[in-house]
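Morning F.,

Quick status update on the modeling queue. The single chain you submitted on Monday has been processed. Sequence for confirmation:
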Amino acid sequence: MNKNDKTRSGDLQRTTKETDIRIKLNLDGTGEAKIDTGVGFLDHMLELFAVHGSFDLEIACTGDVQVDAHHSVEDIGICLGRLIHQLLSDKRGIERFADVTVPMDEALCRSVVDVSGRPFLVVRAAAGSELHGKTGDFDLELVEEFLRAVSTYGLLTLHIVIEDGKNGHHIAEAVFKSFARALKRATRIVSDRIPSSKGIL
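Structure tokens below.
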């Protein structure tokens, strides 16, 4: 993507027997969000993702939430990852690496991103700060499922380090905010070259 291009934006639709998802993303946006996933807590997290990453993001999902939220959360991550990969094209000019730490009250999360072309996810948490249990009716373990889907289909190396936290809601917020800011920094245009000694990502 040439640094003179005004925007990197597009849309994607994915329909399965479990979910029907439509997503629009502008990597060079201003933080506008229009989110309706059928999962209230995920709506909140994706709004934070858009605002703190300065991404314009629209997502509409109809899913089998009468079973639980798992399919919707994972499939939205798949769609978001695919669209990120699509919009980055050959990744020409991007920063590629980023490392951002964000607090949310007692919670502290570090997100490290490499837009590497190699999908890999590590989630590590300090004892007592793991994403387990529920906040409201949302299973917090689904945060990792979402991140795995984004990483896999976005071809991102992503390390999430939860350094502290007791409140699951706060920990999840710190995760989404730090990931958003790291992804924004890693995908910003800083040159005209492909940032790899191999000449390809």
